[in-house]
Every structure is written in structure tokens, then in C-alpha cells.
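User: Fold both of these, please.

Assistant: Here is the first one.
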Amino acid sequence: MEILRTDWTDVYEDERRPFAQTYFSTTPAWMARDEDEWHVHEHQEDRFVVAAGDIILALWDGRDGSPTAGTLDLLPMGQSQRDDAQYTVLIPRLVHHGFMVAGDHPATLLNSPTRLYNPSDEGRDQFAEVGASFDCGRSFSWAAVREILRG
């Protein structure tokens, strides 16, 4: 699977969306990366790809004036997707995000952000403070996602 190409102008642009580094993390089965808070960056954009296992990527857009403002998206990513359904997700600046492993096996996530790691740009906001909710009005939580996935 290709991870990042310079001719993918929707996720890579020389100056606007440069390549800075790539790293990976492995997360245990059914675990969320931060159980009760979102990640958010003021300056950095993330590019997520799942190399092994499966995750649910949650995105909450609280940006004023954004065409997707107020939207919660849950994106399944990983090896259980068809070969032609593997994809890279570009997470814009100021979009709250997090992920949870969806299954009984660990998952490995690769990220190729637009900036080198800077802890001062690694924001965290509590779910309750952000106010993201499902279409039914229920507040977002990883516990609710687990309920949905496990039926």
C-alpha cells in the first residue's frame, strides 16, 4: 500500500502541506488513544494510514465557518477494508480527532504529519467540553462506539 506520494495533491503540497516525518504507534485491542479527550493541533495536519489491524477514526469539526462544522465522522480504517478501500486520511488543523482499535487484535497506525513533533502543538480537549454528539444526540464517547461495534 502506498502511504504518501508527492502527486497526491489533496494530502501533499510542497509548501502548504509539506512532509515532515513519519512515525508509527501500535495500540492494543479495543483500546482508545485517550479514552476521554480529543487531540487537536493549531499548526500541524496529520495524515493517518493503518498498516495492520483495524481502527475507528473519530473526527469532530468545531471550526467556525467550516462546511463540515458541527459534524462527527467515524471512519473505519485498516486491514479488514477491501484492498481498494485502503486510504490516507488528512486531518486538518483545528479538527478534533482520536482513534480506537476496532477488534480483538492490535492495530498499527502510521502518521506523516506536516510538521515535526512539537509538544506545544499537541492539544487535548475533554469530550464533555467539546460537545461532539452522534446524529441521535447522544454525546460522543468511545464506550458508545464499542457498544455500536459489539452490537
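And the second sequence with its predicted structure:
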Amino acid sequence: MEKKVQFLICGAQKGGTTALTQYLNQHPNIFIPEIKEVHFFDNESRKWDNKDYTDYHQNFKEGKSNQIWGEATPIYMYWDKSPERIWQYNSNIKIIIILRNPITRSYSHWAMESNRGQDSLSFEKAIELEDSRKREDLPFQHRVYSYVDRGYYCNQINRLWHYFGKDSVLILKQEDLRLKTKECLSKITNLLNIQAFKTIDYVESHIGHYSEKMDPNTKIYLKKIFYYEIKQLEVMLNWNCKDWLEEE
């Protein structure tokens, strides 16, 4: 039987996936390609009726025989068609997602696109016009102008649960990866059924720096937008996200 990818870090974008990847790369039994974001299951140029994964598996040819394969493409969580495609590829795959306060995540997303020259609008104008700008890429989601939309986590999680069940989907909090690193990594090794990390070199990739802070009035506006989403998420995951709504 051909070896398959056994786990995916599916998001959320700007949620700490780079740091998490750097941690997992320290485990001797895990192989993640050097190109972190493979973008296979969100590729709309592929002929999806032809289930040929040869080029996908080329990304893992450097892996050793005793290593399990994984990759981190954050948009998989957000992209409507990705979960079904992943399930068709490997219905037993393990899914790891790491969530960040959707309010600060949206600003970090915009700052990244602004710095890349992909968005010339201010953050305030970008979120004001998001709904109309997103329509530019219909029938697909917009890869750039989705600052607020990507923060509606509940539907994205429910879609992953639909295909893979709750036991195969591990959901972590960005703050916990930073402050409770060993605990988070222990949950991952348990999910993947591999030995625990013997040592951990701490990384700082989850620290972002911006030329200026989000406008306080904009933050108040986004807290109102995401209030019920965050409350629903608390119920779904049995989390306390009070700090997300109080964060300054």
C-alpha cells in the first residue's frame, strides 16, 4: 500500500502554524516538507476527478521510512472544497488546527497582505469593503480579502468534524502553544500515536510586529462582529475565550 500523509495542520492562517511546524520538525519521527505550505487540496487547477497523488507525494520523498508525513497549509481549514478532498485522499488522516483571537488574526492577515503589496487599502476600508471585494473570486473564497470571513471558525470546524469526526481533529489555542508548549505538543504526539518529545527548543515565530497598532475604535467594531461567534466557539470547544473579547 502506498504511504500517505498522516496529518495536516489546516489552519488558522496567522494563528501560529509556522511556530507549530517548527516544533514538529524537531521530532525525529515526523517529516514535514521544507516548503511549508504545499497547497494541494485547495488547488482549483487540478482535475479532481483524477485521483492521482504522485506529484503530492513528491513533496515527501526526503522523509525517512520511520517518519510519519505531515504538512501545514492553513487555508485548508477555510477552503470549502478542501475537507472533502482530504477525506477522499485519506479518511483516517489526523487534523490539527490552531486558533487565534479572530479580531487580532484579521489585523495580522491584513498587515501581511499590505506588506506584500497585495492590498493598498487601510485596514478599516478593507473590512468595510470585504463583502463586495470577496465577490471578485466567486464561486471560490477570496484568498486575500478574507480578513473577517476567515475568523468565523465554527462553521469551518463543523465541516472538519463532519468528515473526520471529533477524535481525529485536534484544536489548539495560539496562546497555549506559546505558554503551554509542552502540553500542546503532548496532545499532538498522543493524536499521532508517537513517542513524546524528549527535548524542545523554543521558537518565537508566533510573535508578530506591526508598524502601528489597530485603531481602538476598529477593535471595538470587530469585537461586536465576532462576539456571538466567540461565544458559540466557547460552547463548541468548552473553552474560555473571555480574554479575546477583553484584549487591548
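The longest helix spans residues 216-237.
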